[in-house]
């Protein structure tokens, strides 16, 4: 059974409804039964859905394959041009424009619906006529309400949307679990394995927005030798395998590897799939994050291209606020558990994600859109509740102590004219001698394990002054507080990290500028009191209220506070030098940036959901600091222990004064002084800093 066979029952269910609703949409384009200004909105939305319906039929019949490359490019432009930055000011996808044209309450509601309709573009390419049908019927149902003499109230339209997602959310949730646990949902795998990668028309097969980044990336990888491609794939897949090995997890119990990759990297992914096959792992690829129901936001899909408009994504990230309530959350959790229970055996075979990320996009500094939906306080708490319980349910079937992951990153052409040189330098960074780093990092760990606390101070404009309390070791011959992280799950090599003791962790963390999860933060300050955030601020917006709301939503993830879940010292000064030499420091992904200075993660520890699994360093010592005073609460109530977030914040070496180990006898040892490593045996790390 393949992807289309899995969807066939759904196609059969709407076999008669699909042409009927397409016909009704066509009528909307000429009818005048809805008064202005709403008539124009419905005509545009109806025309768009008809286009998707036609596209789905072309793909399913095989007609789409006969289109020329120029036709595919033009079609892709047409599908996405409405929300591109140059057109966004006059798009119903813009809550501000929709509110201005259609009125505040109904305008932003219809903008939310418009965004969900636009989320169906990839589904047309996947042959998912079911999804196109039910959303088309939703549009018609709302259109019918507007045909009355009186303009409907906001609440009536909101209720239609509520019951739509209540009823069909079961299908969306079940398909999400299916995609995670069934390699026969092979839509993406077939693109990787079956496409003629020299014919770049395959890029448009995803239905995603295709830019020069994806085109030039595919062209560049096509020019590489097979040996170079294989070496990249080997680094990626070996990191995954070693991740299981070093943590003592049994990979032989697993059958599915979750591929996550950027469009344009198919040649590397083809080699990777073959490598995974030798490990008896079949690829699964999840599609998430398009619909408001799944949590639309900054990215989110397992297979991604450069977004057409990040402001559009940012404006619609909280659209779920239209219909989110306690009953819907409980229903969704119930369906999630039922879906996993139905695929209990297959869920146990899921090994975890193998991720390829990209970097190099121009930084995004979001603009506040007062017309966009925001979660109210009750909904914020519901989001936190859902995230915690959903994680618990998932962990029952895909146990944290049995799965692993790996992440590696490469630049995209947007990074600048020296793209190919930066790419080659990134490959070098990703393949540094891990044995050499392991030895130097062990020397740093030996010093850190002597301390009760570590003090980190900034210099220049950086006002960081933070004291981190360390796990007290009982037997230093057999125990350590820090993990010696080499190139396995987190590629590239280069950090030592620990879960701090919260009591006694006090002070301020400050970075003058940082990008976190695609968003730019200016003068970010976090104060900690016994390891918990006690104050937070930034200077992104004009008012303190706006800054506080921005941080609570995007950094604290609606929690009132978060613990300091990780303290680490990055040692990859080669990556830091790459950033300096090519002036791309602000474009490095957190995966690399976290290795270029000390970093601090707010949220869960690195060991969340697997704290009871023993972990050992290469020297044989057990890493004892896997818990903190919050995560240990899992033994009483997991809801109190986990936050479902872990955000790394790095201080670059040039903003760093000292990292000083403070011992029980009040003596001190510097690990870094004036931004340079001073532990004997680590001198090699300073060469790139000179």
Secondary structure layout:
Blueprint: H1 3-13, H2 17-28, H3 38-61, H4 69-80, H5 95-102, H6 104-118, H7 121-125, H8 129-146, H9 154-181, H10 187-194, H11 212-223, H12 226-246, E1 256-262, H13 266-278, E2 282-284, E3 303-304, H14 310-315, H15 326-342, H16 344-347, E4 350-359, H17 377-397, E5 406-411, H18 419-430, H19 434-448, E6 453-458, E7 465-469, E8 479-480, E9 483-485, E10 495-498, E11 501-516, E12 519-529, E13 532-537, H20 544-554, E14 564-570, H21 573-581, H22 590-593, E15 598-603, E16 622-623, H23 638-641, E17 646-650, E18 656-662, E19 668-673, E20 676-677
Parallel strand pairs: 1-2, 1-3, 1-4, 4-5, 8-16
Antiparallel strand pairs: 6-7, 6-18, 7-11, 9-10, 10-14, 11-12, 12-13, 14-15, 15-17, 18-19, 19-20
Helix pairs in contact: 2-3, 2-8, 3-6, 3-8, 5-6, 6-9, 8-9, 9-15, 12-13, 15-17
Pick out its properties.
690 residues; alpha+beta; five-stranded parallel sheet; 23 helices
What does this structure look like?
With 690 residues, the chain is an alpha+beta fold. It is built from 23 helices and 20 strands. The strands form four sheets. It has an eight-stranded antiparallel β-sheet. Strands 1, 2, 3, 4 and 5 form a five-stranded parallel β-sheet that branches. A hairpin with a 5-residue loop joins strand 18 and strand 19. Helix 2 crosses helix 8 (129-146) and helix 6 packs parallel to helix 9. The radius of gyration is 26 Å and the shape is globular. The model has no long low-confidence stretch (mean pLDDT 94).
């Amino acid at each position: 059974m393949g992807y289309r066979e899995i969807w066939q029952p759904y196609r059969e269910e709407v076999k008669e409804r699909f042409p009927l609703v397409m016909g009704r949409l066509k009528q909307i384009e000429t009818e005048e039964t809805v008064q202005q200004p709403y008539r124009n909105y419905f005509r545009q939305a109806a025309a768009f859905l008809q286009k998707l319906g036609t596209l789905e039929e072309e793909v399913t019949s095989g007609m789409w394959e006969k289109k020329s490359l120029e036709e595919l490019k033009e079609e892709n432009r047409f599908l996405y041009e409405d929300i591109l930055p140059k057109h966004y000011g006059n798009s119903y996808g813009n809550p501000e424009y929709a509110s201005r044209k259609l009125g505040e309450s109904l305008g932003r509601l219809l903008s939310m619906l418009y965004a969900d309709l636009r989320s169906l573009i990839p589904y047309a390419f996947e042959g998912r006529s079911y999804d196109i049908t039910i959303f088309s019927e939703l549009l018609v149902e709302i259109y019918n309400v507007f045909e009355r003499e009186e303009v409907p109230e906001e609440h009536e339209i909101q209720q239609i949307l509520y019951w739509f997602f209540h009823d069909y959310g079961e299908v969306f949730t079940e398909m999400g679990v299916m995609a995670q646990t069934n390699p026969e949902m092979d839509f993406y795998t077939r693109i990787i394995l079956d496409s003629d990668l020299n014919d770049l028309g395959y890029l448009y097969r995803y239905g995603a927005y295709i830019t020069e980044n994806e085109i030039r990336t595919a062209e560049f990888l096509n020019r590489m030798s097979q040996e170079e491609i294989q070496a990249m794939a080997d680094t990626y897949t070996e990191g995954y395998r070693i991740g299981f090995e070093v943590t003592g997890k049994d990979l032989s119990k697993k059958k599915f590897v979750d591929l996550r990759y950027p469009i344009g990297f198919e040649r590397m992914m083809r080699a990777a799939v073959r490598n995974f096959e030798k490990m008896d792992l079949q690829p699964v690829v999840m599609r998430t994050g398009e619909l408001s129901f799944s949590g639309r936001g900054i990215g989110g899909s397992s297979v991604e291209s450069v977004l057409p408009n990040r402001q559009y994504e940012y404006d619609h990230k909280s659209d779920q606020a239209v219909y989110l309530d306690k009953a819907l959350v409980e229903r969704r959790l119930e369906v999630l558990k039922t879906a996993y229970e139905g695929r209990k055996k297959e869920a146990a075979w899921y090994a975890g994600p193998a991720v390829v990320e990209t970097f190099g996009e121009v930084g995004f500094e979001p603009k506040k859109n007062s017309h966009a939906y925001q979660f109210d306080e009750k909904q914020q708490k519901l989001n936190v509740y859902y995230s915690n319980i959903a994680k618990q349910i998932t962990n029952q079937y895909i146990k944290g102590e049995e799965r692993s992951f790996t992440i590696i990153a490469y630049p995209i052409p947007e990074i600048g004219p020296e793209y190919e040189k930066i790419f080659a330098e990134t490959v070098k960074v990703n393949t540094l001698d891990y044995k050499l780093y392991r030895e130097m990092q062990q020397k740093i760990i030996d010093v850190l394990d002597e301390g009760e606390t570590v003090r980190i101070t900034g210099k220049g404009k950086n006002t960081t002054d933070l004291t981190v309390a360390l796990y007290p070791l009982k037997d230093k011959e057999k125990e350590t507080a820090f993990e010696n992280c080499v190139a396995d799950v987190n590629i590239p090599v280069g950090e030592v990290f620990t879960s701090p003791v919260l009591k006694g962790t006090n002070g301020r963390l400050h970075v003058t500028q940082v990008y976190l999860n695609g968003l730019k933060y200016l003068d970010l300050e976090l104060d900690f009191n016994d390891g918990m955030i006690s104050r937070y601020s930034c200077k992104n917006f004009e008012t303190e209220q706006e800054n506080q709301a921005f941080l609570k939503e995007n950094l604290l993830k609606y929690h009132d506070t978060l613990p300091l879940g990780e303290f680490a010292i990055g040692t990859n000064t080669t990556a830091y030098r790459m950033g300096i030499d090519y002036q791309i420091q602000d474009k490095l992904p957190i995966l690399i940036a976290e290795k270029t200075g000390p970093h601090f993660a707010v949220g869960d520890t690195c060991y969340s959901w697997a704290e009871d699994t023993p972990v050992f360093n290469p020297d044989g010592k057990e890493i004892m600091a896997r818990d903190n005073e919050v995560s240990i609460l899992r033994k009483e109530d997991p809801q109190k222990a986990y936050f479902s977030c872990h955000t790394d914040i790095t201080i670059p070496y040039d903003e760093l004064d000292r990292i000083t180990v403070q011992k029980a006898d009040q003596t001190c040892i510097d690990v870094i002084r004036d931004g340079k490593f001073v532990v004997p045996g680590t001198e090699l790390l300073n060469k790139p800093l000179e």
